[in-house]
Design goal:
This protein is of the alpha/beta class and 323 residues long. The protein has 13 helices and 12 strands.
């Protein structure tokens, strides 16, 4: 079992209203009117939240609320796993989050999914777990391994990268050694080869799932394996980190998301014009110390040809033809 330095998130990030709750009695007609008007959203049957608060959450935070509400109703203790466990630990993933809550069950019980529960008959013995209210939840290492075995390669990489990300507030949730230890201790013919590939490709420096997705894509496009979060001291004295860097070509790649220009965490009170000017000055400094420079949008990872054209247009060479 992991030596845990984090705890799963067991409280809701927003206020929820339970129609059957003793402390929040809500009139059915009022609920229907509020949902129809778009003021409230239904999380699961009988549980609602204010729409503005719900939309402000990131997808994995929304799923955590759903997990908490579904497990609150379960009559018997469950082992929360896969996407549900990822949400409980704050591990983001690529793609749409499921509507059902994932749980591991004994192998002999089968994997039927009913109501709000999706069952994985992978067994519950010798699984690394942690307390989750009156339930249990797979640890970060176990969760990352389960997802690496179950998901397509790029999505498995993104989830595992998030679990081992060293710059996470409070530190990484787990590390590659712990995940590999669990993989060796829990051999599985199903998904093990994929999990081994994911472990070999994972990086501790990917700050978000789009960076992971782009790293997988540029390798698939024939540009070679980049380093992540390349550190350089610029001539002005400030430190810059490159999202992707190709050492052989001395080529620096920035991946821009909306957060760089909109999130208070990054804007620091600056207006849009000042952010653009500061970013341009930073880019000019970087260009002076590297041979090549490219700027990609995070959503470009969904468009391989666009990424190929941008990188080759900026002078980075691929060993593969244009897709």
């Amino acid at each position: 079992m992991d030596t845990l330095t984090h705890e799963p998130l067991t409280s809701s990030p927003i206020e929820v209203f339970r129609r059957r709750g003793r402390f929040d009695p809500i009139d059915d007609r009022r609920v229907r009117a509020a949902v129809a008007a778009g003021a409230w959203v239904r999380i699961i049957p009988g549980v609602y939240a204010r729409a503005e608060a719900w939309r402000a959450l990131r997808p994995h935070e929304q799923h955590r609320v759903r997990v908490l509400e579904v497990t609150h109703r379960l009559e018997t203790p469950a082992l929360v796993s896969h996407h549900a466990a990822a949400a409980a630990w704050g591990i983001d993933t690529l793609g749409r989050w499921p509507e059902r809550v994932d749980v591991r069950v004994p192998r002999a019980s089968g994997g039927r999914s009913t109501g709000r529960i999706r069952r994985y008959p992978l067994g519950v013995d010798d699984v690394a777990t942690a307390p989750f209210g009156r339930h249990r939840v797979t640890t970060p290492a176990q969760t990352a391994l389960d997802l690496a075995r179950a998901l397509p390669f790029v999505r498995g990489v993104a989830a595992l990268d998030q679990a081992i990300w060293t710059e996470r507030p409070g530190g990484a949730l787990t590390d590659l050694a712990e995940i590999e230890h669990l993989r060796a201790a829990q051999p599985s013919p199903r998904g093990d080869a994929r999990a081994s590939r994911v472990l070999a490709f994972a990086s501790t420096g990917a700050a978000n799932v789009r960076e992971s997705q782009m790293r997988v894509l540029v390798v698939e496009l024939g540009f070679g394996l980049p380093t992540v979060q390349e550190r350089r001291v610029l001539r002005s004295g400030r430190v810059a980190f490159g999202d992707l860097y190709f050492p052989d070509a001395d080529h620096w790649v920035e991946i821009d998301g909306r957060g760089k220009y909109l999130s208070p965490e990054y804007t620091g009170g600056r207006d849009a014009a000042q952010i653009v000017l500061d970013e341009k000055a930073r880019e000019n400094e970087i260009r002076r110390i590297v041979r090549g420079f490219s700027r990609l949008d995070a959503l470009d990872a969904e468009h391989p040809r666009r990424v190929y054209d941008i990188l080759t247009g900026d002078g980075l060479r691929s060993i593969l033809p244009r897709p």
